[in-house]
């Protein structure tokens, strides 16, 4: 990371790619994570590599949802762990949520490596190692979750999530917050709160909103949730990508 000059016009994109590479080398990110990163990067380029106003609103609604939740869980996959481990730990802290490792290509080694990586970045408790419950309507390996984690959660943050699992979690009745740069992907399409933004910008912004709302009463948080319009957020992102207009 030290080698990339901060004034490079594509600094953030280079940093992101470098972190995914390092994640693959460290055994926490699957090689396929590089392809996911490439797709995300293309959409981010079209968004102007900035948090558009509708994404910031979604990030505020996400903070409100997480603060209102009884059992919020933040889901971590190999790309999330490579890109924002400390930032996810900080968000978990700010909203009192659990972190749970949940992988598309699940292996015990990778789960253990990611849990260790998260602990190195300030996470104190990491779920996902028990895998003692199943998400209905998903194939075996991808359905594994912790009974006292994602399975029992009322609000889940699932960044860069695969469409099938996002749909299956939605069918379980969970309030789903998705971070995904492609507004047309199935995951944001089924989300209660779709955040079309780079996870590198989105997670710290959700945390900032959560800190800002820490003392807000329940009525204020509920009003933020009610005022958020998921269709409008998806349309605004698509419009920006297609036309460059806000
Ligand atoms: P599917 O149609 O099955 O959902 P997909 O193209 O969405 O396929 P996945 O690997 O399931 O592929 O999902 C990766 C998603 O994560 C993509 O939509 C991509 O745009 C998004 N993405 C990748 N990197 C980032 C990032 N840094 N921040 C936010 N979203 C990202
Ligand atoms: Mg997708």
Account of the 3D structure:
The protein is built from eleven helices and eight strands. The chain is an alpha/beta fold. Strand 2, helix 6 (108-120) and strand 3 (126-127) form a beta-alpha-beta unit. The protein has one domain (53-243): Phosphopantoate/pantothenate synthetase (Rossmann fold, 3-Layer(aba) Sandwich), CATH 3.40.50. The strands form two sheets. It has a six-stranded parallel beta sheet with strand order 3-2-1-6-7-8, with helices on both faces. Adenosine-5'-triphosphate binds at residues 16, 36-37, 39-40, 43, 83, 160, 162-163, 179-182, 185-187, 198-200. Adenosine-5'-triphosphate (ATP) binds next to helix 2, helix 8 and helix 9.
Task: List strands and helices in order, with pairings.
Elements: H1 11-26, H2 32-47, H3 53-68, E1 72-76, H4 78-83, H5 85-95, E2 98-101, H6 108-120, E3 126-127, E4 133-134, E5 144-145, E6 155-159, H7 163-171, E7 175-179, H8 186-190, E8 193-195, H9 199-212, H10 218-227, H11 230-243
Parallel strand pairs: 1-2, 1-6, 2-3, 6-7, 7-8
Antiparallel strand pairs: 4-5
Helix pairs in contact: 1-2, 3-9, 3-10, 3-11, 5-9
Bound molecules: adenosine-5'-triphosphate (ATP) and magnesium ion.
């Amino acid at each position: 990371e030290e080698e990339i000059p901060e004034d490079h016009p594509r600094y953030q994109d280079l940093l992101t790619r470098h972190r995914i590479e390092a994640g693959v080398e460290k055994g926490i990110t699957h090689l396929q994570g590089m392809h996911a990163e490439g797709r995300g990067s293309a959409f981010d380029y079209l968004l102007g590599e900035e948090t558009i106003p509708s994404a910031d609103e979604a990030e505020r609604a996400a903070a409100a949802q997480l603060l209102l939740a009884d059992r919020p869980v933040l889901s971590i996959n190999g790309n999330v762990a490579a890109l924002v481990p400390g930032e996810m730990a900080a968000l978990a802290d700010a909203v009192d949520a659990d972190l749970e490792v949940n992988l598309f290509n699940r292996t015990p080694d990778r789960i253990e490596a990611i849990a260790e990586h998260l602990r190195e970045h300030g996470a104190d408790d990491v779920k996902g190692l028990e895998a003692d419950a199943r998400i209905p309507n998903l194939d075996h390996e991808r359905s594994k979750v912790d009974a006292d984690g994602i399975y029992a959660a009322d609000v889940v943050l699932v960044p860069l999530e695969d469409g099938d699992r996002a749909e299956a979690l939605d069918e379980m009745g969970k309030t789903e917050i998705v971070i995904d740069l492609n507004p047309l992907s199935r995951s944001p399409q089924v989300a209660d709160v779709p955040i079309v933004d780079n996870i590198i910008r989105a997670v710290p912004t959700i945390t900032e909103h959560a800190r800002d709302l820490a003392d807000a009463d329940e009525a204020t948080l509920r009003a933020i949730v009610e005022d958020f319009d998921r269709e409008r957020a998806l349309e605004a992102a698509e419009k920006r990508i297609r036309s460059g207009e806000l």
